[in-house]
Amino acid sequence: MISALLTDAKSFVLALSLLVSLFTPLSSGASDVSKHPAANAAQAQLSAGDFNWRDIVPYLLVATTLPGEQGLKAVLENSKVLRVYLANELRAECNRDHNLCAASSDPPQLQAQVTKRIDEIVQEQFFRRHDSAIVDYSLARQPFPFSEIAAIKSEKHPDAYLILALSDRSYTAADLQAKYGPPYDTDIYQWYSVFKYRLDDPRYTSRAVFEVDPVDGAVIKVAISLKARKPKKH
């Protein structure tokens, strides 16, 4: 599972000319559900077109300032995709747990349960490889527009990544360009095409690379990377 994602992640980063080695603590209120902008969105269904890679960029930046597990938690707790998926999963599980049924009908309680579940995922799925902290989680309950999510943080460099695999072929390169405009660059790597987008900021450089099947134009994966810039010395 993670090995395939990491192989793709390395190719994404190579295509972006970034170095990946395979792959200051959160404040006490950082995990408060009310502070998650993605929280209320978990009450609605999600399509691949609802995903916007730019939304996760601020949390990738936060992750670069935090130790391993805390950095990954900052990313995953603010991932709209994961929060919607887990909210739906908790609703589905309420038949076996009356407490979850009660939480499902109360948005703040539901979001608290989602945050708790993400904390458990980070604890259970966290591992290290080649100086990187990694959490890889399968979104196995279908139908859902995504099938896998991985958060990666370099423990030697101020780099953080989020990788999403799409579950079907309904989201295409045409949809991608309708949402974000033309990519700043395209390339071909092995058997797939890549569409590249970026954000440049005085604090960081962030790039998103969408893997596209050249046969039918279906978007297969997206890898979002962020490299924090060193503050300029005055």
Give the gist of this structure.
This protein is α+β, with helices and mostly antiparallel strands. The protein has helices spanning 2-15, 57-63, 68-76, 80-93, 98-104, 107-125, 173-180, and strands at 126-129, 132-138, 146-154, 159-166, 185-189, 192-201, 204-212, 219-228.
Q: What's the layout of helices and strands?
A:
Elements: H1 2-15, H2 57-63, H3 68-76, H4 80-93, H5 98-104, H6 107-125, E1 126-129, E2 132-138, E3 146-154, E4 159-166, H7 173-180, E5 185-189, E6 192-201, E7 204-212, E8 219-228
Antiparallel strand pairs: 1-2, 2-3, 3-4, 4-8, 5-6, 6-7, 7-8
State the separation between the terminal residues, measured CA to CA.
Answer: 46 Å
The helix/strand series, from N terminus to C terminus, equals HHHHHHEEEEHEEEE
Which structural class fits the helix and strand makeup?
Answer: alpha+beta
Biggest β-sheet description: 8 strands, antiparallel
Unreliable stretches (pLDDT < 50, length at least 5) are 8-35, 39-44
Q: Can you count the helices?
A: 7
- What would you report as the Rg, rounded to the nearest angstrom? 17 Å
Strands of the largest sheet, in order across it? 1-2-3-4-8-7-6-5
Helical amount: 25-40%
Number of domains: 1
Mean pLDDT value: 82
Which term fits the overall shape? globular
Number of β-strand runs:
8
Strand content bin:
25-35%
